[in-house]
Each structure stands twice: as structure tokens, then as C-alpha cells.
Automatic annotation (TrEMBL):
It comes from Enterococcus asini ATCC 700915. The modification N6-(pyridoxal phosphate)lysine is found at K648. Belongs to the glycogen phosphorylase family. It catalyses: [(1->4)-alpha-D-glucosyl](n) + phosphate = [(1->4)-alpha-D-glucosyl](n-1) + alpha-D-glucose 1-phosphate. The lineage of its organism: Bacteria, Bacillati, Bacillota, Bacilli, Lactobacillales. Its EC number is 2.4.1.1. PROSITE patterns: PHOSPHORYLASE. It holds the Pfam family Phosphorylase. This is Alpha-1,4 glucan phosphorylase.
Length: 805
């Protein structure tokens, strides 16, 4: 894809005339953005249709990544970068007096996900395309993305995210590829004219699923894959079937909103509909496409791999069985055999309360055919185990799909797929040894680890052009295609010039963030301070509270001894809480009130500042991460499956302050003990407490005057305006025995923070540590992660003409 600056300028101006009859100077940013979008789209359209044709002609095996969330963020710059025309376009626009950065601001973040899981899916889409792999995404086109967060008096308030209000440049509606999806009614099996048993549907609702396709561009390799998101419509023929407007509305709203990651939303009927809707539409469209290849369905697994991202799309399994049997007359045994070979599953959590289960009654009423098939899958599984393990009925009870009138989606996914993977080494080990141990005994060969990865292009090249430039000048540009080459930077660990350049880049990113903070919060911060960052969803297990307790300790220390030697610190938080997660919301309120207290205390005089940035999202992450000095990864060991912000922060030169949880363990292995600060209980110690049941949080309080002063501050008015929230937090620690061992790890955390303070004082050494982190972040490239999925799970290969290098 070639285009000169002059050609681009001409094209842009011409399209602006055609569309709005305007000159550059008269156009608004929105209008310019729209036109630029259409130029970009036209530019990749040939490559998109060529890729499509190549796949069809070659009949190559393709992977389909099913995820109920995708969190791509803004796409303009990423597309320009991948097409290799970012600089040309930036310069062309500058000639015309337009700033690309300003235009990019116009684009709404595509926020069709909650956090880690959705963002991972998007990093994977980018890497699949960039590695030249034939793979596509399948999900839901929500009318409203994740809520927008505002603070009112320090409280989180949720506003709707109307991301489609000004249209979406990148999507293409494909009416002709729509499929129908059935809900509810009765299903029974009756003999057909050919003597076969077939399901007969009575009184089912028929909904139309219309796909909207978005191009996923590979990095400078001419490959364009597809992210297909489904939107619900009511077919005209069905309009008479609605009893009332409310009845109709319930179906129309099926793809209206993304459910927040929230235990109170579990068991909701609409969520179940959403899951079946995008799964059924996706599987139907895969089979429709496959039939064009004129291959028999019993070798489907040689051409198609379907990946189930967490259990939310696990209905892929019974839906595939339904299509193969009901629509194509395949026997149960054959259909099951092929389904297992097609499907693979990733687990993202070990927290028992987060594992998805659906009440049998709900499933039966809404998805009767799915339930029949699940019941039969369960029956056959129980039968087989009874033969193999007659002496162990407990094992069967523990592992079967249907238990206590609930369908266990993880059991369904493991039993009916050929691969189950965790997302970091520690997490995968815990799955095998503890959480899914029974299944590991039954199917040891199915379990494997695939440590998460991140898209270097977005999280370094786009988010941090300053650092990227230093890297180019120092180690050349090959790291842009081969992130492992970042290792070359290690050769410069004693090179003062390079260390100074890295420090300069960091400084400038800190200034950029400082300006943003000033503009949006009115708080003035010094770029000289340590930028200490905790950015992730607000969850008790992630322990933002531990961070807050330590901030209070520093505050009281400085109040007691204003001459205390201590580096200036800026604590930065970014986090959304699920709307009905009251405890998490109380912590947000408490952080905001502590921020107010400290930021305005003349005794502190700016030596500690606390900033909670509103509405943390992909775009804000791109601004914060390049400016971070310290990366807070302080979850209770064993609870964070992987984490991915830990990788992004490391790649941008932050020093990780962490427990040995999730991928933090691998970060430590990558950089060595000297370049990371580890503290707190190990996962083993946590499990020992669970076994012995002898943790008494109150002992820590009783024995520590420091903790007494800090915790009392929550209930004695020291922290103002948190009468109820303060009590709730205080009680969670002392009355309800501190579920996530915050008090147990407090001392170790304080010491680790003191270590950070000391390390930062030696700027030369700090720069060396920072360099070592950047140099060793290449191993967390999502490109590598995707190549492992491709080789070891999906059995797909890069397409020759698009493959890397
Ligand atoms: C479930 C039921 C009803 C409504 C919502 C949900 C729901 C939504 C989102 C449940 C879970 C999620 C998201 C989970 C998630 O983001 N997990 C994270 O996945 C990352 C990628 O693997 C890991 O790095 C994180 O450790 C893990 O917490």
C-alpha cells in the first residue's frame, strides 16, 4: 500500500468536496475525521477483499475468536500505523493546517468490554493479523459500551456511553449475511418423513442477527482480517408475534448494553440471550461459509477452529452439535467427535464465585433445544465416568455439567473441547492443581498454559512515540516487527547517553500527563515526583485499599515529622467499579476524600499528591502508561489470573511493585530480582491460611499503633465525608476478617515502598532498572502468544503471502 503525501492531500480534499461540498478551512473536526476515515477505508478495501478471496481459494484452516467483549479503543492511528502511512498522513494534514492528534480525539473509544478480558481479545486480533494468521473475531455490537464514569462529590456516577451517536466510520453492515436465531417456545423430537428424529419448534421467537464487520489490519503485511459483531433486529415477518410493546422492547434491547463485570448481574435472562445470540449467529455463519468450500462436515476441524474466550461463549458447543445433527443429519457420536476437535477454551479466573452457572429452569425456558443437548451431554458424560470410575461417585458429582439445578459452563467447556488454557504460568498451575484438579485428572493432555501478551504496536509505538524514537536510534527499528529484539537495549545499560535519552522521554511523557491532570482536575502536579500508578478495575482482590492505607501512612509520617526525607510522590488511580458493587464504590469515595485531604493540606505542601482520574479507558491508559515510574500490581497472590497492565507498564519503563501473582511471577523471571520489587505472601502461604483457617485480622490491628491510627482515620472523622463508607471499609477489615489479607501484607508493602523510595533517589541506578524492564518486555508480545495458540491449540499457519519478514 503506497501513497505519497501529495496524493493523500488531494484525495482528502476531493472527498471533502464530494461529501460536504467544503474546503478544509470550513470543515469541523468531526467532518474532517469522517472524511479521513473514508480515505483510510478506501485505502485498505482492496486488501480486505483480497484477503477474503485468498482464504476462500486456499481453503486454509481459520480460527474464530468468540468473545462477548472486545475493547479496541480508538482505531484511526492504529490503522494508519499498520498501513504504513501514519507519518505521511500526519505530515499531509500538517501542510493543510490540521493536527492529526486533534482529529484522532474526535473518534469515540470503542469500549465494548469491561477490562482485561476484552482488551486481551483486541490485542489478540491485532496480533493474529500482524502475524499473517487467518483468524477472525466474533462478538456483539452493543449500542452502548461500558458506562462513562463521572465523580460527583467523590462518588462514582455512571452515564451511558453513546459511542454510535456520530456514526462509526469503521464498520460495514452486511445485510446479506444476516442469520436468524430462535428463542423460547417448546421443542420436541418427532420422526421426519425420512424416519429420522428431528426437533419440532412450537411458539419460538425468531430474531434476526445482522453482522457489522470491522477490518483488522495486519502490521504492514497487506493482510486484513475481520471482526464481526452482531446486532439484533426484529424480522418483518415476526412483527405480529409480540404481545405488547414491552414484550417487543425486551427483544429489541438484546444487544443494547454491555453487562458490567458484576456479580449482581449474574443469572440475568438478557445476558443469557446475549450469549446465545452471538454464538448462534457466529456458528451459523461459519458453517454457511464452510459449505461453500464443498467439504464434508465431518472434517470441519481441518478447516475451522473456534476459541471460547472465558465461558461466556460456551454455548458454541451445544449450538455446533445442534447444527450438525438437526440441520445436517449427523449422528450424535460423529457430531460430538468433530465438535470437541473444533473447540478450545480459555479460563480467566480462579475465583469460584466468578465461575459462570445458569439455572436449569432459565435455560430450559429460554433455550429449550440447547438445554436438551446439554442434558444429553451431561448424561453421556456421567455414563462414561460411571464405567471408568465405578468406585468414585463423588468425582462424577463434582465434575458433571448439571449440578444442583445449575448448568456449569466451565464444565461444559472443558468436557466438550480439546484444550483448556490458563493465562499465566501460575494461574495454569493453580487450575491443574487446585481449581480444576478433577478435570486435570480426567483429561491431563487438554490442559496447557498460554501466558497473555500485549500489542506492542499500540502500547509502545502509538502510545509512546518519544521512547520509540530513542529505541530506533539506539537499537534500530527491527523491534517494531520483532519485539524480542528489544533485548538489544541491554547492551546499553552502562551507556549514560542512552540512559539520559530514556529519562528525557519519560520526563516529557510525565509533563504530557501532568498537563492533562491540570486541565481535567485542576490539580497541579510536579513532573519531578515519582509517578506511582495503579490502573485496573476496582475489585477488593486487587487491593487498591492496600495502596490507600500506605498513602495514609506516608501522610501521617509527614504530619509528625515535616522534615522526613522522602521523595515527592504522585499517586495516580484509574478504576471503574461495577455499578452495584457498593464496597468497590466506597473505596473510590474514600480514595477521593483522602486525595482532597492530602492535596489541600498546607503541611504536606505537595510532597504527596493523590489523583483519581475519571473514566479510565483505553485512551486514558495510552496517556498514563508512558508516564509511569512505578507499576502497582498488588493483588492477593493467587487471585489475579494474569494481569496485562503489568506488561504494558513494564514495556514503558515502569518498575513493577508486585506480589507474586499472575504474570508478575514471569515479569520477575524476565527482569531478575534486582529490577523489580516483590513483597507479600506467596500463593502457597495464602492457601496455608485457607487450610488452617487461622487468620485473625484484628491481631494485626491490635499489635500495630500505625495500623490503628490509619484504620481509625476511616471512622473518627480524620478522613472527612465518609461516614458510611469509612465504617464499611473499617468493618470489612476488622469485623469481617479482611478477606484479601490487606493487613497481613501491610508491613511488607510499606517496606517495599521504602525500597522504591531509596531506589528512586539513585537516579542513575533507577534509569538502569527502567532500561532493563524495557529490554525484557519483548517476551510479553501478543504476537508470540498468538503464534503459540496457532501452533499448539488451533493448528493454523501464517498465510504465505502475508507472513512476517
Ligand atoms: C459475568 C456475568 C455477568 C456479567 C458480567 C460478567 C463478566 C464480565 C467480565 C465476568 C468477567 C469479566 C471479565 C473478566 C476479566 O477481565 N478477567 C481478566 O482477564 C485478563 C485477561 O486474561 C486477566 O489478565 C485478568 O487477570 C483477569 O482478571
Amino acid at each position: 500500500m503506497e501513497m505519497t503525501k501529495e496524493e493523500f492531500k488531494k484525495e482528502l480534499q476531493q472527498r471533502l468536496k464530494e461529501k460536504y461540498a467544503m474546503d478544509i478551512n470550513d470543515a469541523s473536526s468531526q467532518e474532517l475525521y469522517n472524511v479521513l476515515g473514508s480515505v483510510v477505508k478506501a485505502y485498505y478495501s482492496d486488501a480486505w477483499s483480497n484477503t477474503w478471496k485468498d482464504y476462500l481459494e486456499d481453503g486454509q484452516k481459520q480460527a474464530y475468536y468468540f468473545s462477548i467483549e472486545f475493547l479496541p479503543g480508538k482505531m484511526l492511528k492504529s490503522n494508519l500505523l499498520n498501513m504504513g502511512i501514519l507519518e505521511t498522513v500526519e505530515a499531509g494534514l500538517a501542510d493543510l493546517g490540521v493536527s492529526l492528534d486533534e482529529l484522532a480525539q474526535v473518534e469515540q473509544d470503542m469500549a465494548l468490554g469491561n477490562g482485561g478480558l476484552g482488551r486481551l481479545a483486541s490485542c489478540f486480533m491485532d496480533s493474529i493479523a500482524s502475524c499473517g494468521l487467518p483468524g477472525n473475531g466474533n462478538g456483539i455490537r452493543y449500542d452502548y459500551g461500558l458506562f462513562k464514569q463521572r465523580f460527583v462529590d467523590g462518588y462514582q456516577v455512571e452515564l451511558p456511553d453513546e459511542w454510535l451517536r456520530n456514526g462509526n466510520t469503521w464498520e460495514v453492515r452486511k445485510e446479506s449475511k444476516a442469520v436468524d436465531v430462535l428463542f423460547g417456545g417448546n421443542v420436541y423430537l418427532a420422526e421426519d418423513t425420512d424416519g429420522q428424529l428431528r426437533p419440532v419448534y412450537e411458539g419460538a421467537r425468531r430474531l434476526r442477527a445482522v453482522p457489522y464487520d470491522t477490518a483488522v489490519l495486519g502490521y504492514q503485511n497487506h493482510l486484513v482480517n475481520t471482526l464481526r459483531l452482531w446486532s439484533v433486529e426484529i424480522p418483518e415477518s415476526e412483527e405480529d408475534h409480540y404481545r405488547s410493546i414491552e414484550d417487543r422492547r425486551a427483544f429489541e434491547d438484546l444487544t443494547a448494553v454491555l453487562y458490567p463485570d458484576d456479580s449482581n448481574e449474574r443469572g440475568r435472562q438478557t445476558r443469557l440471550w446475549q450469549e446465545y445470540f452471538f454464538v448462534s449467529a457466529g456458528v451459523q455463519s461459519i458453517i454457511r461459509y464452510y459449505l461453500r468450500l464443498n467439504k464434508p462436515l465431518d472434517v470441519l476441524n481441518e478447516y475451522v477452529a473456534i476459541h471460547i474466550n472465558d465461558t461466556h461463549p460456551a454455548l458454541c458447543i451445544p449450538e455446533m452439535m445442534r447444527i450438525l445433527m438437526d440441520e445436517h443429519g449427523m449422528s450424535w457420536e460423529k457430531a460430538f467427535n468433530v465438535t470437541v476437535k473444533v473447540m478450545s477454551y480459555t479460563n480467566h479466573t480462579i475465583m469460584a464465585e466468578a465461575l459462570e452457572k445458569w439455572p436449569v429452569a432459565l435455560m430450559k425456558e429460554n433455550l429449550p433445544r440447547m438445554y436438551q443437548i446439554i442434558e444429553e451431554l451431561d448424561r453421556r458424560f456421567v455414563n462414561e465416568l460411571t464405567i471408568c470410575y465405578p468406585e468414585n461417585p463423588e468425582l462424577i458429582q463434582r465434575t458433571r455439567i448439571i449440578q444442583n439445578e445449575q448448568v456449569h459452563m466451565a464444565h461444559l467447556a472443558i468436557i466438550c473441547s480439546h484444550s483448556t488454557n490458563g493465562v499465566a504460568k501460575l494461574h495454569s498451575d493453580l487450575l491443574k492443581e487446585v481449581v480444576l484438579h478433577d478435570f486435570y485428572q480426567l483429561f491431563p493432555e487438554r490442559f496447557n498454559n498460554k501466558t497473555n501478551g500485549i500489542a506492542q504496536r499500540r502500547w509502545l509505538q502509538l502510545a509512546n512515540p518519544k521512547l520509540s524514537k530513542v529505541l530506533d536510534q539506539t537499537i534500530g527499528t527491527t523491534w517494531r516487527k520483532t519485539p524480542g529484539d528489544l533485548k538489544l537495549l541491554q547492551n546499553y545499560v552502562e551507556d549514560q547517553t542512552v540512559l539520559d535519552q530514556l529519562a528525557e522521554a519519560k520526563k516529557s511523557n510525565k509533563q504530557r500527563l501532568a498537563s492533562y491532570i491540570e486541565e481535567t482536575t485542576g490539580i497541579t502536579v510536579s513532573p519531578e515526583a515519582i509517578f506511582d500508578v495503579q490502573i485496573k478495575r476496582l475489585h477488593a482482590y486487587k487491593r487498591q485499599l492496600l495502596n490507600l492505607l500506605h498513602i495514609l501512612k506516608l501522610y501521617f509520617d509527614l504530619k509528625d515529622d515535616p522534615k522526613k526525607v522522602q521523595e515527592s510522590r504522585l499517586f495516580i488511580f484509574g478504576a471503574k467499579a461495577a455499578p452495584s458493587y457498593t464496597y468497590a464504590k466506597s473505596i473510590i469515595k474514600a480514595i477521593n476524600e483522602v486525595a482532597n485531604l492530602i492535596n489541600n493540606d498546607p503541611d504536606i505542601n505537595g510532597r504527596i499528591k493523590v489523583v483519581f482520574l475519571e473514566n479510565y479507558n483505553v485512551h486514558l491508559a495510552e496517556l498514563i502508561i508512558p508516564a509511569a515510574d512505578v507499576s502497582e500490581q498488588i493483588s492477593l497472590a493467587s487471585k489475579e489470573a494474569s494481569g496485562t497492565s503489568n506488561m504494558k507498564l513494564m514495556l514503558n519503563g515502569a518498575i513493577t511493585l508486585a506480589t507474586l501473582d499472575g504474570a508478575n511471577v514471569e515479569i520477575r523471571d524476565a527482569v531478575g530480582d534486582d529490577n523489580v520489587v516483590i513483597f507479600g505472601m506467596t500463593e502457597r502461604e495464602v492457601y496455608q491460611y485457607y487450610e488452617r483457617q487461622d487468620y485473625v485480622a484484628k491481631d494485626y490491628y491490635d499489635q500495630s499503633p500505625v495500623l490503628q491510627r490509619i484504620l481509625n482515620a476511616f471512622v473518627d472523622g480524620t478522613i472527612p465525608n465518609i461516614y458510611f463508607e469509612g465504617r464499611e471499609i473499617f468493618d470489612s477489615l476488622l469485623k469481617h476478617n479482611d478477606e484479601y489479607f490487606v493487613l497481613r501484607d501491610f508491613d511488607a508493602y510499606v517496606k517495599a515502598q521504602e525500597k522504591i523510595d531509596g531506589l528512586y533517589r539513585d537516579q542513575h541506578h533507577w534509569q538502569q532498572m527502567s532500561l532493563m524492564n524495557i529490554a525484557n518486555a519483548g517476551r510479553f508480545s501478543a504476537d508470540d502468544t498468538m503464534m503459540r495458540y496457532a501452533e499448539e491449540i488451533w493448528h493454523i499457519e501464517p498465510v504465505e503471502q502475508y507472513s512476517k519478514k
